[in-house]
Design a protein that fits this description.
Elements: H1 3-29, E1 41-42, H2 45-48, E2 60-61, H3 65-78, H4 84-90, H5 110-117, E3 121-122, E4 125-126, H6 131-139, H7 145-160, H8 162-183, H9 193-210
Antiparallel strand pairs: 1-2, 3-4
Helix pairs in contact: 3-4, 7-8, 8-9
Length: 211
């Protein structure tokens, strides 16, 4: 290579290095917003009109949607989610909160409170409770005042109107039945996969209609 060619390549390398340094400096100077939990996303305007949310004033998506879709698809094809559905649900996020559970939860016996005061029955049988998720909700109340007021209003209305409480229990039972079908690996119904899939679709229909 000629001396002129080497000089030209050297100038190109120096220009490239200078450009890269300038770009890095500019990127470092950009103020970025804090990262948010990807599982707690405010619903779009279109979703907010049709998304029921009893916990927060502004409807939000609390689950890893991609992980949930994968768990549901796998369960329907394979006959069980292999625990993936339960894992996706137990990692549901809670609303932003100013409370730090590590500073008080154990001292307040939250687990004992859940065991002693939050159990209930549906159709004469103890209803399954997602204790870890309930613990998160109790220990991390929302810092958003409208959401606090909404939760209080929902609780007051359920207390004053037994028919609404009964309707909520039916919704809960329908969802529990659907999740049980998808995440129960020991059921004999797996011997007839066609019937099991029909049962799942029926349970899904019932859960949607109960809403």
């Amino acid at each position: 290579m000629s001396q002129a060619g080497r000089a030209t390549r050297a100038r190109i390398r120096r220009a490239a290095v200078s450009a890269a340094q300038a770009a890095a400096s500019e990127a470092a100077s950009v103020v970025r917003p804090p990262r948010r939990d990807a599982r707690f996303l405010v619903a779009s305007a279109a979703q907010a009109d049709v998304t029921p949310d009893l916990l927060d004033a502004v409807p939000a998506v609390r689950l890893d949607v991609a992980a949930l879709e994968h768990a549901l698809s796998f369960a329907f094809l394979a006959g069980s989610s292999g625990g993936a559905l339960g894992s996706a649900l137990c990692h549901a996020a809670v609303a932003p909160s100013d409370w730090a559970p590590d500073n008080f939860a154990d001292a307040l016996f939250i687990d004992e409170l859940i065991s002693g005061c939050f159990g209930f029955s549906i159709a004469g049988r103890p209803a399954p409770i997602d204790r870890p998720q309930l613990r998160k909700l109790l220990c991390q109340p929302p810092k958003d005042l409208p959401s606090v007021l909404q939760r209080q209003a929902v609780l007051a209305e359920l207390t004053e109107r037994p028919q609404l409480l009964a309707a909520l229990e039916r919704v809960y039972q329908a969802i529990v039945t659907l999740c049980g079908l998808l995440d129960d690996e020991g059921s004999d119904s797996r011997l007839d996969m066609t019937q099991w899939r029909l049962d799942v679709l029926t349970a899904l229909r019932d859960a949607i209609l109960s809403l």
